[in-house]
Every structure is written in C-alpha cells, then in structure tokens.
Amino acid sequence: MAHCEQVPTAALTVDTVLSRMRALDTALPARDGVAVFNRVYLAVTETVALHIDGGRFADAPAATALDVRFAERYLAAVDAAEEDRRPPACWRPLFQFRRHPGVRPLQFALAGINAHIGHDLALAVVDTCRTLGCEPVELEDEFDRVGDLLVSLEERIRDELMPGPDLLQIADPLTHLLGSWSLERAREAAWAAARALWALRRLPDIAGEFTERLDAAVGFAGRMLLTPLPD
C-alpha cells in the first residue's frame, strides 16, 4: 500500500495534545463527565504515542497526523464549551449532563467515545488526507490500528467503570444502554462516512449537509447514552 506524502502535519503535535489533556485531567473535578471521558482519551493517546515511538505503525507520520487531527476536534469542543460557544451537536449532551448526579461514569465515558468516534473520526480522516495529500485508502492501516487500540481500551473501560456483578443485573437500565451501542459498529460507520465525505469534497453543499446530519445523529445517540438512571 502506498504511503502518504511526508509533508508537515497539523499545528499541534502529539506532545502538545497530551499536555492539554493532562492539564484538563488536573483542572477538572474527578466526577465531572468531561473529566471521565478525558481520562479515557488521555490513556488512548498515550498508548498511540507509545506505539508510534515504538515503530508499531508502518507509516508513523500518517499515524501521527491522524492522531493529532483526531484530538484537535475533541479539544476544539472543549474550548468552545469553556468560551460559552456551542460545541458540535455530537458533544453537546456530554457538556450539558456533565454534572448530572443520575448519570454514571461509564455513561460519560461511552458518550464521549460515541461523539469522538461517531463524528470526529470521519472528519479527522478527511482532515488528515488534506494535510498529507493522500487518499483515505492510504490511511486505512493506521485507521485500523488506532481502532484496534480503541476497542481494547473500551474493554478496559467497561471493566474499570462497570458496576460490580451484584449491581449490574439483567433488569438494570444500564445493561440495556450498554447493549444499544457498539464501538466496533461506530468505527465501521466512521470509515464509511470518511470515504463518503472524501468523495463529496468537491460538492461542499452536499458535504456540509452530510456532516450536519451526521453530527445531529451522533448527538442524538449520545443523549440516549446519558439518560439519567436511578441508583
């Protein structure tokens, strides 16, 4: 498979992305919903950085660019919320419900992952292709490797944030919420959306409408994931 041209990547670097996330981790209350997701995403980004430094990506510059472009969209949503601007629709439920006492930490984590994978990842692939002057197919290996890391991390998140077996019974509403969303399906949908957006890049009106509808649909799913639950 051909590799992307090794041209300058995004304005941020993996190190600056990690610095921003670590600063957020320090500044936000531990129970804050954004803080819960940020800890998850920080762990993902640290793992990706280790894999890049360890030569586990065939095209390290492409993996770096994708990682940074991906993170930029989350950090832009955080900046928008902090500056009293409206973040993308996919992120609004997390910011709106971040302090709700009826929402459990696992819900916050999954809602953030939903927003970031369901919406941001597709746009990050397009951003990266524009940055590096390549086609989505040339990023597929890096996309798959990052996706594999996300799936393994989701399993860890469920283990760490899931209530104990005695609390999570079949009738528990959280059981049904968890069964309604899949990271693997979201990742597959993100790749399809990225390819569609790339194909539509010379039709900005249609691409814009596609992006807006994707944003709204992912935001709706996030709102469902954040349904307040009884103790």
From TrEMBL:
Domain of life of the organism encoding this protein: Bacteria
Family annotation (InterPro entries):
DUF5995
- What name does the UniProt record give this protein? DUF5995 family protein
Organism, per UniProt? Streptomyces tendae
